[in-house]
Design a protein that fits this description.
Helices cover 76% and strands 0% of the residues. It has helices at residues 3-24, 38-50, 56-93, 100-113.
């Protein structure tokens, strides 16, 4: 067997392995571009290195993700509390008669407080 034949077979084998690896490691990602001033980039890179991040992209992704979670959580809390306020004031301001369950619960509570 000639060396060139062996190299060709080996090359084909490596290409086959690369194709298999590329197909099994295919990860869906999207690209996001951001223009920064030189000062900002240097500042962010310094923070990235000090924070132990592998790359500037890892640093920015991590920080933005945490900030996004915080913003979403705060917004959901505001929306929730706004709904709670609406329900509360609707109940107080409405002319509906309290249910029998609510009346008996109130009596039970008042009785327990008088002991």
């Amino acid at each position: 067997m000639k060396l060139s034949h062996f190299v060709r077979i080996y090359s084909v084998h490596l290409q086959f392995i690369n194709i298999i690896i590329m197909k099994t490691v295919e990860i869906k990602q999207s690209r996001f571009e951001l223009r920064l001033s030189i000062e900002d980039r240097m500042f962010f890179e310094k923070a990235s290195k000090l924070g132990g991040y592998r790359t500037l992209a890892n640093f920015i992704t991590s920080i933005v993700r945490e900030q996004a979670k915080k913003i979403i959580k705060e917004e959901e809390a505001v929306l929730s509390s706004a709904r709670d306020k609406e329900i509360f004031f609707d109940a107080i301001l409405s002319n509906k008669e309290p249910s029998q369950k609510l009346k008996s619960a109130a009596k039970k509570y008042l009785k327990s407080q008088s002991l």
